[in-house]
Amino acid sequence: MLLKIQSGESVHSYIDRNISLNWRDPSARFFKAFSKSNLSFSELKTIASTMGWLGCRGLNRLLHFHTEYPVYSVIKNGQNLSYSQDAYISQAKWMGAKRQAFSFCPDCIREDILTLGFPFWHRLHQKNIEVCEKHNVLLQRVCPFCQKGFYFDNHGLDVIWNGCDSRSLAETVAIANNDPIKYKRSKLLNEMYHCGFHISEQAALKVLYEKLSSVDYQNFLPAQNADLYIDHLKLTVSRLNLKIFNSRVQLSITGLCFEAIMLAYEDFDSFLSDIKCHDNALRPIDSLWGTYQAGGGSCFNYITV
Ligand SMILES: [Zn+2]
Ligand SMILES: [Zn+2]
Predict the structure, then answer these.
(1) pTM value > 0.85
(2) 116 C-alpha to center of ligand 1: Å?
(3) DSSP calls for the chain
(4) What is the mean pLDDT of residues 213-240?
(5) Which of the ligands is closest to the CA of residue 166?
């Protein structure tokens, strides 16, 4: 029997945990093929359906709760009817699922052992995040005993269960974080992951531009690149108004929105409140799970399964 995936667990953690802790079960053999650096969407679909999460909805459920995909999907074009574009029929490797630069929070490890009996790798502890959102301590990017990183071809992820030379990562001393910006970034990403709605990127860009044009952001956040983000927002909003906005640049827009929310708001909920004033028909996050985009990036042909 497969192990139960944990709330907030990265899909790579789940794969390797099945191999390391469930090795007597035939499923461990199944997961070995997926313990690697890159996963394709079709491999993620296979993993989801083996977990009993079937079809397009199952793939999107896995993407939403156990990968970094919400970063690209929570804020999306209002005309886009699919959660993950053509992922359901795609054979492409998805670079967002690349297994790289894993890190851990010593306090989370100790807490998980206490509550669950075992630790796991959290999807929130990813490459652009330096602080644990829950404990406000620095994430550890290398093994404290041998200094190896947690890359695929370096220390394997199994070190969290099997230890390094008989020593457990749970022995690691946590180091308090003193940087409020890094902490805010972690909290904001966590709140974005837990957003129950899709936010129209058109509404998001306008709200962010209006907000940043009206507040003295320098009062509450020392941001070196604030002017750059505001200029970029201004340009994007003017393209939106001229109807020459290209939604295929969504990935860079998503990064732009995240940085702009960092500048303009104390938290994600305050941003969401302003969005609700502009868009009173927010789509529930799981309402697009059963639909995929067919026919390539520029062809908006949607199929619901
Ligand atoms: Zn933690
Ligand atoms: Zn080590």
Answers:
(1) yes
(2) 15
(3) -PPPPPTTB-HHHHHHHHHHH-TTSTHHHHHHTT-SS-EEHHHHHHHHHHTT--HHHHHHHHHHHHSSTHHHHSEE-TT---SSTTGGG---EEGGG----B-B-HHHHHHHHHHHSS---BTTS-TT--B-TTT-BBPB-B-TTT--BBSTTSS-TTHHHH-BTTB-GGGPPP-B---HHHHHHHHHHHHHHT--EEEEHHHHHHHHHHHHHHS-GGGT---TTHHHHHHHHHHHHHHHHTT---GGGHHHHHHHHHHHHHHH-SSHHHHHHHHHHH-S-PEEGGGGTTEEEES-TT--EEEE-
(4) 69
(5) 2
